[in-house]
């Protein structure tokens, strides 16, 4: 009975588990948010035109408050539907055919990212509208 109760409680949470990446970044000298926004337009077109795996969602977050506001100009967050989708996406983007390497090199030119973290995100509460 305890095993069944455990599955009933935690199985729905595991259904909402997804890999999420965070890049903590500052702009390279001479670049700013306008440059990043222009790059995002080109990057989105590249992904739409070249990648089969389309579950990746991306967010640019700008800190409003932090213990040290000098740590980051922005944080890039991205998530996939699941780990299999993440693997397929990484393979297409960075792998043998490297369909994303040229556009990613442009990202690296305009940014200095001090960290790149991958986490497993598990939803534990669904907000209401």
Structure description:
The protein has a four-stranded antiparallel β-sheet. Helix content is 42%, strand content 26%. The N terminus is likely disordered. It has one domain: 2-Layer Sandwich (Alpha-Beta Plaits), CATH 3.30.70. It is globular. The longest helix has 18 residues. It contains four helices and four strands. Helix 2 runs antiparallel to helix 4. It has 129 residues and is α+β, with helices and mostly antiparallel strands.
Structural class of the secondary structure composition?
Answer: alpha+beta
CATH architecture: 2-Layer Sandwich
Number of strands: 4
CATH class descriptor name = Alpha Beta
Q: What's the domain count?
A: 1
Distance between the first and last residues' Cα: 35 Å
Give the overall shape. Answer: globular
Strand/helix succession:
HEHEEHHE
| Strand order in space, largest sheet | 2-3-1-4
- Summed over residues and divided by their number, the pLDDT gives a mean of 87
Stretches where pLDDT falls below 50 for ≥5 residues? 2-11
User: If helices are DSSP runs of H or I spanning 4 or more residues, what is the number of helices?
Assistant: 4
Determine the fraction of residues in helical runs and give it as a percent range.
Answer: 40-55%
Main sheet overview: 4 strands, antiparallel
């Amino acid at each position: 009975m305890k095993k069944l109760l455990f599955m009933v409680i935690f199985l729905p949470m595991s259904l909402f588990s997804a890999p999420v990446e965070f890049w903590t970044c500052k702009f390279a000298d001479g670049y700013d948010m306008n440059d990043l926004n222009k790059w995002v337009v080109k990057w989105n077109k590249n992904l739409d035109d070249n990648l089969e795996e389309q579950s990746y969602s991306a967010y640019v977050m700008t800190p409003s408050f932090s213990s040290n506001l000098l740590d980051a100009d922005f944080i890039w967050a991205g998530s996939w539907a699941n780990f299999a989708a993440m693997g397929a996406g990484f393979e297409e983007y960075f792998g043998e055919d490297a369909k994303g390497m040229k556009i990613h090199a442009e990202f690296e030119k305009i940014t200095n990212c001090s960290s790149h973290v991958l986490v497993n995100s598990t939803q534990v509460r669904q907000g209401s509208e």
